[in-house]
Design brief:
The chain is an all-beta fold. The chain contains no helices and 10 strands. InterPro entries: Cyanovirin-N, Cyanovirin-N_sf. This is Cyanovirin-N domain-containing protein.
């Protein structure tokens, strides 16, 4: 299940640690966090799932609902136009905990 459908109060710490209040199977809310740098990388200025450390080459990182946006550096070091990745594609709520799938 996408995390935005069963969670609230989403925010980013240090541009890469996703925080949310996630509801478990019993309806209880739990504070949870997930380091997106373990799952998202930068491929020549584009977000890439199954990569790592996107935030090391990102600027102007923002979270808008399930959309993570940033300006990512290309291989030449130049910034690419603002990129968007939908976290709901791979981040879910597993019984009150943010989880990557």
């Amino acid at each position: 299940m996408s995390f935005t459908n069963s969670s609230s109060n989403f925010w980013l710490e240090d541009n890469h640690i996703l925080h949310a209040s996630c509801v478990d199977n019993d309806g209880n809310s739990h504070d949870s966090q997930l380091d997106l740098d373990h799952y998202i990388g930068n491929s020549d200025g584009w977000f890439a799932w199954d990569g790592v450390n996107f935030s090391k080459t990102a600027s102007n990182v923002q979270l808008q609902g399930s959309q993570l946006t940033a300006e990512l550096a290309t291989l030449s070091g130049e910034p690419r136009e603002r990129q968007v990745i939908n976290l709901d594609e791979r981040i879910g709520n597993n019984n009150g905990q943010l989880a990557y799938s």
